[in-house]
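Good morning C.,

I know you're traveling, so I'll keep this short. The sequence:
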Amino acid sequence: MRQGRAVKRGTWDTLAEGGPVIAFSHILCPVDFSETSDRALQHAVALAEWYDARLTVLHVLPTAASALPPVAALGDVAVAIPEPPSPAQARVALASLVDRVAGARPAPDLRVVEGRPHEVIVEQAASLQADLLVVGTHGHGGFHRLLLGSVTEKVIRTASCPVLTVPPALAGASPHVVFRQILCPTDFSPTSQRATQLALDLGRQSGGCVTLLHAIEYLEPEEPCEHVAFDIRDYRARLLEHFRQRLRAQVADDVRTWCEVQEALAINRAYREILDRAAALPADLIVMGAQGHGGLELMLYGSNTQQVVRRATCPVLTVRA
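The tokens, ready to paste straight into the viewer:
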């Protein structure tokens, strides 16, 4: 990624020539020493360099209760729970990890805190006034992997700042952090409009392309029934044109002078279309809201955002209202 021109006056700011600018000033990256959290740290380091931001790397030492897998998942299986390292051991391992990933870059702040992982992460983000969280989507294998996945989802639901989730590395994928192809699904809610602002600014700073996507769900493609008083084909055409105009209106004409923007419409389940489109581009980043119209966060999260975060093969940046 190339160095942006963000002016550090707060998370949401404005360019002199017009248009949004996102200036992250403090990035928090929790790690569990898994390969996926290493990859998340690579992204956090790159973004900290890009925005000239402070970076804090956090390792949570789980309490005995939070380290156990769910009782229902155990059944009759004997599970050996490894003894967690001491705070001093964890800090040595954390310093070694950061030295390996960050190299000669400015040293980030290191923190080792004991507690329930998702609660500690959200509390630390709030107390540090972090304006971006960077987390891996999966941790170590077995039950711990399931636990870490649950932690990530809880963080997305409860953190007040944007959360960048980073999946495991793909075979043959570039080790460099680049956001040239950005996919931004929108349902035109205030949260997705904020996500659009962020996607456009990232596209501007990386010299990339932002694809705005709206998926129309539950519109059956069958021919009109003889008992229906209106023509479904005409309704489909009018609906598509309506949302095509709304997509176009999402981005002012002057914004298109400094960021390449494309619009895409589809009739499909939203998460399926997002994942299919991300694979087809292929996308380097998906930027989407964590809640939709009416504040139905859990409904949207369960049906779309959660599915995308779990299945996407590129990083996903979720934004809250």
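Safe travels,
E.
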